[in-house]
Structure to design on (197 residues):
């Protein structure tokens, strides 16, 4: 399948979600990034062809897939749920996309040093509100929320000046002071940041 065909799936969230099995489609409205949000975030995170973007808690890779179509950046998603990674990579292959990879793992084991942009859609939240969890296939706890949040702060602080960050549905207090807010969209739900020092 050629890229032009892949573009056709960006006409609406419903059209895009039809790429996935029904149980994945049913999660979309709450858990996957809407395409209009993905378009703005991806263009911020990947302003040029050399940009390397990581999505932390990528699910089935909707943001990464859409981002690779909207921009010329390289998108990697990391996700703890192996079944989601398998499903997402199947769609990546089906669409013939070359600049997307979804990997199975925990982001605490990943070195973010090679990335120029980070996308974060509040993927730790399910450790606080179990009712919002995607499923029961991974361990969840308040302790893990604290662990993941602390690791995220350390990683963000360690990134080089100029690193771009896009957060969706995230409290402003969770971002280190070395990142300056550049813009916000969708009633301040999407915030675009850059590391200044």
């Amino acid at each position: 399948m050629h890229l032009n065909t892949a573009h056709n799936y960006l006409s609406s969230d419903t059209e895009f979600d039809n790429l996935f099995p029904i149980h994945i489609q049913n999660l979309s409205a709450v858990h996957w990034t809407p395409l209009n949000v993905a378009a703005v975030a991806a263009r911020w995170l990947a302003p040029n062809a050399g940009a390397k973007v990581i999505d932390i808690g990528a699910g089935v890779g909707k943001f990464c897939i859409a981002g690779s179509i909207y921009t010329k950046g390289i998108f990697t998603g990391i996700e703890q749920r192996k079944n989601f990674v398998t499903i997402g990579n199947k769609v990546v292959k089906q669409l013939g996309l070359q600049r997307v990879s979804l990997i199975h793992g925990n982001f605490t084991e990943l070195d973010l040093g090679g990335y120029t942009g980070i996308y974060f859609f509040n993927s730790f939240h399910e450790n606080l509100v179990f009712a919002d969890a995607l499923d029961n296939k991974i361990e969840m706890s308040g302790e893990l929320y604290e662990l993941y949040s602390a690791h995220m702060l350390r990683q963000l602080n360690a990134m080089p000046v100029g690193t771009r960050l896009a957060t969706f549905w995230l409290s402003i207090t969770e971002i280190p002071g070395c990142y300056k807010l550049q813009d916000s969209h969708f009633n301040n739900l999407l915030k675009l940041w850059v590391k200044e020092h």
